[in-house]
Amino acid sequence: MKIFNYGAINIDHIYQVPHLVRAGETLSSTDYHQVLGGKGANQSIALARAGAEVHHIGRCSKTDTWAVEQLGDAGVNCQLIELVDEPSGHAIIQVDEQAENSIVLFGGANQSFSQQDIHSALATGVKGDWLVLQNECNNIEAAVEYAAQAQLKVVFNPSPMLSDIEAFPIDKVSLLIVNEVELSQLLDCANLEQNEIVDKVRKQYPDMDVVITLGAQGAMWVNANECIKVDARSVKVVDTTAAGDTFLGYLLAAIDRGESKQAALTIGCKASSLAVQSLGASISIPTSAQVAVI
Ligand code: RIB
Fold it and tell me: What pLDDT is stored for residue 97 in this prediction?
């Protein structure tokens, strides 16, 4: 089926630093790169590299046509991307020697969508198509409401987790993809054991599929009847930026072509294990040929 992804396109400014800058400190970086990023753009690239038909809905500045070209080169359908007068969204990313990062976001053009803009972009969606959402664009509630009416299946990755998430119609989501921190913010389950977390997820979201990414511990798929866990590969981590986006893209592409949940978790973990071994967002997302040989 067709996959629509309404998501942020960012210009990522990546600074390699000895440690994350402290309050009041001025710190020299040891290296700097400017690359295409944004959770939406990264996920679209991962979906396309994994072989899915993905249509990105997004906006960036007229001065950043290179970003759209890179999405197109990766195989993303860019017909629903608009070039606008507003500045593109951007992210200031520090990555330290232990592969820890910190990210400051500027929304820019990612925050400029009206409800009507979103409805128009989704107008060609038909029953059974997917809509992927993260939390870096505005009016995502309008996208979910539209998708529910048009019977599109919603995949929601509530990242970054903001306080406005409480107003989000989460009951209309088919597949929720969260890391442990996001899940604990949603369900207040930070101090629970894994089996207690599974129980809580089932109680809170009885009709939903929930995929929980566990970093170095792998990933888990939970629904009312199943709990499937896959271990991560053990690798040397350089930068975790876009690892979750890579996981989501490869997992969803596998589900879309009819593979099992176990197989989808496995390929998602493999792809993200490659992404963490190099610096940067979109540039660290592996091709399917690279994923196939590990
Ligand atoms: O998930 C990684 C992304 O988060 C980065 O590319 C950055 O743009 C931020 O949106």
Answer: 94
* CA-wise closest residue to 176 among 155, 153, 197: 155
Both tokens of 92, joined, read 């200031």
Q: At 184, which CATH number?
A: 3.40.1190.20
CA angle 97, 99, 102 (to 5 degrees): 105
Contact 182, 190 (CB under 8 A): no
Q: Is 37 in the pocket of ligand 1 (CB under 6 A)?
A: yes
Q: Which residues contact 45 (CB under 8 A, 6 or more apart)?
A: 70, 71, 74, 76, 249, 282, 285
What is the pTM assigned to this prediction?
0.96
Task: Return the DSSP state at 125.
Answer: -
Give the count of domains, the chain. 1
pLDDT band, very low/low/confident/very high, at 190 (cuts 50, 70, 90): confident
Q: How far apart are CA 145 and CA 200, in angstroms?
A: 26
Tell me if 256 CB under 6 Å of ligand 1. Answer: no
Q: How far is CA 78 from the centre of its chain?
A: 18
Ligand 1 atom closest to residue 35's alpha carbon, by position in its atom list:
6
Does residue 241 have its Cβ closer than 6 Å to ligand 1? Answer: yes
Other beta carbons less than 10 A from residue 181's beta carbon: 12
Nearest residue (by CA) to ligand 1, atom 2, is: 242
CA distance 264 to 250: 7
Under the banding of pLDDT at 50, 70 and 90, the label for residue 67 is very high
Domain of 25, in residue numbers: 3-292
- Asked if residue 163 has pLDDT above 80, the reply is no
